[in-house]
Design a protein that fits this description.
The chain has twelve helices and twelve strands. By secondary structure, the protein is of the alpha+beta class. It folds into two domains: about 180 residues, Ribosomal Protein S5, domain 2 (2-Layer Sandwich); about 120 residues, 2-Layer Sandwich (Alpha-Beta Plaits), CATH 3.30.70.890. Strands 1, 2, 3, 4, 5, 6, 7 and 9 form an eight-stranded mixed β-sheet that branches. A four-stranded antiparallel β-sheet has the order 10-11-8-12, with helices on one face. Strand 2 and strand 3 form a beta hairpin. Helix 3 runs parallel beside helix 4. Bound molecules: adenosine-5'-triphosphate. The site of adenosine-5'-triphosphate has 20 residues, from helix 3 and helix 4.
């Protein structure tokens, strides 16, 4: 951590995820859906450089006091300054104001723990937007961690996950990272064994998909097939890449493929070019394939590149 004259600069990597399996169980009365899915971080990441200056803390900003809203005389007498947030990014289409999840995360931490200052963020966005790779949620998670570190709040991970859930169902997973079973609305997490060594080919068609719109068009009752999530977890536990690949399934394809038929073509191109299996990630439209050798993945990437179906192609690894 760099520290000079009440100014701190710290850089974070925010990793993308794919869903090795994704099931949507039912629509809940609150409008959310209950899901059961296996999440896996992959080595594609945004970089976030946070600089905080003029850092101010309420007289006692320890996690315990802020979390329990302790109303000491000292705290009451403390005049709350504003948190100044400036976000710059290499993607002009992204909002940099209060609509950005990084902004929301910094503001939430500032309000919750009574910490203030000027926070500027340089976001180098590499994760495609509206792609089903949790790009916004992972930036949000990185911002929660950054404020926790830079302002020395020392909130435990579980507490950040509880706060993060308010900003998005995928944020708790992005805070936890690696590989996990996600249940509930995606926020009830159980750590799982990591994906065995393999190469992951990620291909994003040109369109973007709104997660809310895809969920809105899901008809859970009409689903004819559900992924074998327990079989997938067993494959992970026994480090059996072939079993894991054979259990890959995403029920959201029933909605997204109708809107973007290229998804099916990309899946087929991957499977015909050496992938053990290929499915869509999240609400799409990104497709990923699992390969047991990197040369095969590179060859498939070259082939798909020629088809002109994609704006982004990555050959990467699980994290
Ligand atoms: P998920 O897999 O969680 O559904 P996604 O990849 O489909 O996510 P995102 O890239 O996270 O979708 O972005 C969805 C929306 O969130 C976009 O409309 C975007 O404008 C908004 N957004 C806000 N902050 C960010 C951010 N830091 N990065 C990306 N998108 C952001």
């Amino acid at each position: 951590m760099k520290e000079y004259m009440n100014s701190i600069t710290k850089t974070y990597k925010a990793y993308a995820k794919v869903n090795l399996a994704l099931d949507v169980l039912r629509k809940r009365p609150d409008g959310y859906h209950d899901v059961k899915m296996v999440m896996q971080n992959i080595d594609i990441f945004d970089e976030l450089e946070f600089t905080a200056t003029d850092i101010k803390k309420a007289p006692d900003n320890s996690y315990e006091n802020a979390a329990h809203g302790e109303n000491t005389e000292e705290n009451a007498a403390y005049e709350k300054p504003c948190c100044n947030i400036i976000i710059e990014t290499n993607k002009p289409e992204l909002p940099t104001d209060e609509r950005n999840l990084i902004y929301k995360a910094i503001k939430l931490m500032s309000d919750e723990y009574n910490v203030y200052g000027n926070v500027s963020v340089k976001l180098t966005k590499n994760i495609p937007i509206e792609a089903g790779m949790a790009g916004g949620s992972t930036d949000c998670a990185a911002a929660l961690k950054a404020v926790n570190d830079i302002f020395e709040i020392n909130a435990p991970l579980e507490e950040l996950m509880r706060l993060g859930k308010r900003l998005g169902a995928d944020v708790p997973f992005c805070l936890l990272g690696k590989t996990a079973l996600a249940e509930g609305i995606g926020d009830i997490l159980t750590e799982a064994e990591g994906l065995p060594d393999c190469t992951v080919l990620v291909v994003k068609p040109p369109v973007g998909m709104s997660t809310g719109m895809i969920y809105g068009n899901m008809n859970c009752e009409a689903l004819k097939s559900h992924p074998d999530i327990d079989g997938m977890l067993e494959g992970l536990r026994t480090h059996d890449l072939n079993t894991v690949a054979s259990k890959m399934e995403n029920v959201m394809e029933t909605v997204t493929v109708k809107l973007c038929p290229d998804i099916e073509d990309i899946k087929n191109a991957m499977k015909e070019n050496g992938a053990l299996n290929a499915i869509m990630s999240g609400s799409g439209p990104t497709v990923f394939g699992i390969f047991d050798a990197s040369e095969k993945a590179w060859a498939a990437a070259d082939y798909i590149g020629e088809l002109d179906l994609a704006t982004d192609i990555f050959v990467t690894k699980p994290v």
